[in-house]
Here is the input.
Amino acid sequence: MNNLVVAVARETKLFAGLETTPGTQVLPNASGMNLILAAGAGSVQQLMRMVDDPQYRNTLSKLDPTPGSFDVGKWSFPAVIKTVAASGTPAAPELDPILASLFGKIADTTQTAWFGANSRAYLLQSVSPAGTVPLTFTLWFKVGHMMYYACGATTNVGEFNCAGNDLAKANFSGEFMRHGFCGTDAVTAADSGSGTSLKVENASKFFLSQTGDQFMIQFITYATGALGATATVTAVDYVNNILTLASTATRGSGDIVAPYLPAGTEVGIPMYGKYGIMRIGGTISTKAIASLPTTPYIIQSARVTITNNYKYHADLKDNQPYPTEVVRPAARTCEGEITVFAYRDLPVFMYKALRDPLYQDYVIIPMQDRSATTGRLAEIHCPRVEWGSPNVAGEDEKTATISFKSTASPSYDDEAALMFAPAASSTVTSSTTTVSHS
Here is the structure.
């Protein structure tokens, strides 16, 4: 088998599935998970802690460190925000598990306050007297001939970007408890050709982080590239270069053993940032539809970032080589910024920031496709925004970057929400709407 094959970015695909218990692996399932398309380079990484030997020796040399435990894993990838066009309550977007973990709740499809009909709303998690358990997921990340899985993953940071000259995008990152990987190898001549013991050339290309974890492989004929059977690997024997399969699978000597994920189906329609107009209004304390802001305000771009401050306990003496617990000891933060031309009404923001620092606006940042009638719409709601002082710059046309913080009402956990609108929503802002700054 030729090992000099370089993985390329176009071969990237991801799947994610919510876990019933944090750290319990969820296998990729084409019928139960959406294919996720990365919009740039992503990563999955977990390092082993190596502990230096502190003992005194009369030498200038350092001896081998002692292997410790796995540190908290880290993952990240950028994506395009897409919505699904359909009648009734919007279907789950491709990023559903990632968004659910970011906001802390499974999407609510019974909300009618924002659009007058059922929306798909991602709302922030509240403290629970029974224990506030973060929503975790298993992330599957395949790039060419390599595949990783990450169990007990959470979305710690979600950064949403909507600019008038680009697609609506987001950058997601977080941590996880443990990972495993599956490389690409070949069936040896010593293999039986069937059964559950698969003899490969080099088993060190495969890793399961604990008993019970699994990953899938597919056999490919080396000479023709014909796709063969798929199989599930349940154990790895590094001494004898044997992969244990969950059930028997037919293969031939020299066949490629490659990582396998379902083909999946692309879900959703990208939204262009130019369409939809930000709306701004006075302070509200309830999410009644009559209270939603209606004043349009033209901007160049907007960013909203939610940071959860999840914490993984990596140092518990629990006889496990990796973190097994994730908690929420600190408050989340929600902040962002808008970029605007320095119109005549810019001093209003200066007044809000400097003379009345507790002045709050309800801000809605919409994302939609070119048609204003299909209901292909998503909105980020920040009901209680406190503005920072504008930073004016620019060589020719002057622009201002205005930061903000979004805080909660006395009801808590309402500082941000992400909504996907039903078809033919009455609040879709027409792309022909014009606004004049005075």
